[in-house]
TrEMBL record:
Signal sequence, renumbered to the chain: none
UniProt keyword Iron, yes or no: yes
Family per similarity comment: Belongs to the hemerythrin family.
Xref: NCBIfam families: hemeryth_dom
Superkingdom, natural source: Bacteria
Organism of derivation: Sulfurovum xiamenensis
This protein's name: Hemerythrin family protein
Ranges for domain Hemerythrin-like: 17-127
InterPro entries per record: Haemerythrin_Fe_BS (IPR016131), Hemerythrin (IPR050669), Hemerythrin-like (IPR012312), Hemerythrin-like_sf (IPR035938), Hemerythrin_metal-bd (IPR012827)
Keywords for the protein's UniProt record, in alphabetical order: Iron, Metal-binding, Oxygen transport, Transport
Gene3D superfamilies: Hemerythrin-like
This protein's record includes keyword Calcium: no
Pfam families in the record: Hemerythrin
Amino acid sequence: MLIQQQDVQQVANAMMNMLHEDEMEVINNFYDAVKAKDVDKVDELFPGFLAEIETHFKTEEDMMEQSAYSDMQMHKSDHDLIRKKLEKFHKRWEVLKGPKELQGFLEKDFKKWYTQHITKWDAQTAPNIG
């Protein structure tokens, strides 16, 4: 398990909290396959992992746009930062199938980004949207 419930701050928006809870299950299933070095399972789960992250981002971005949230561009730019990294690691996975490299990224970069993003950006945004 990469991210536990207590690692993720609850925010003042039920939809955002629901997105995070659903997403954590997908993240942890993906991480478990990576950690087990189950290449076939990672191949199977990687597209769903990326889709779940994108659903989270798109839903938040739509909510920010509908609410004319003033810091939307800064929040979205933080999404874009990790989108680019995820895209890079997905492309590298397709070529190298390197679970060790992917595990390092998930443990060192992704987990830190994810928990900090929720603590900073999502917590700040939540009371101002939808």
